[in-house]
Design goal:
The chain has 120 residues and is of the alpha+beta class. It contains five helices and nine strands, in the order βββαβββββααβαα. The strands form two sheets. The protein has a six-stranded antiparallel beta sheet.
Length: 120
């Protein structure tokens, strides 16, 4: 599994050739505070890299969730809709947001690796 990061504090894991998992980073959830609502994209929706895929609302603020790479949404984390605090408790695991089919792997390769993200 390869994890890459965006400057907007999203992460993406390529699990297999079928889907990639997207979520927010530990830094993002710490900056937002207690997350109380998430608006996730519709399954089947195709988005381009950088497009707004959803919204995360916390007691402090609301933040847009950006598409890290172009692709089609193939699954959303319904558990996160029922319990948005999952994104606080386990942002890099059970608190994932959605899965996508990556349209262009070259976009994935342009993202930051863990040392690059840590430097940001």
């Amino acid at each position: 599994m390869t994890t890459m990061f965006t400057p907007d504090h999203e992460w993406i894991n390529i699990e297999d050739h079928e889907a990639a998992v997207v979520g927010i980073t530990l830094h993002a959830q710490e900056a937002l505070g207690d997350i109380v609502f998430v608006d996730l994209p519709a399954v089947g929706r195709t988005l381009k890299k950088g497009e707004i895929a959803g919204v995360v609302e916390s007691v402090k603020a609301a933040a847009d969730l950006y598409m890290p790479v172009s692709g089609e949404v193939v699954e959303v984390n319904d558990a996160l809709r029922a319990d948005p605090a999952l994104a606080n408790r386990d942002p890099m695991g059970e608190g994932w947001f959605f899965k996508i089919h990556v349209a262009d792997m070259a976009e994935f390769e342009q993202l930051m690796d863990p040392p690059g993200y840590d430097a940001l």
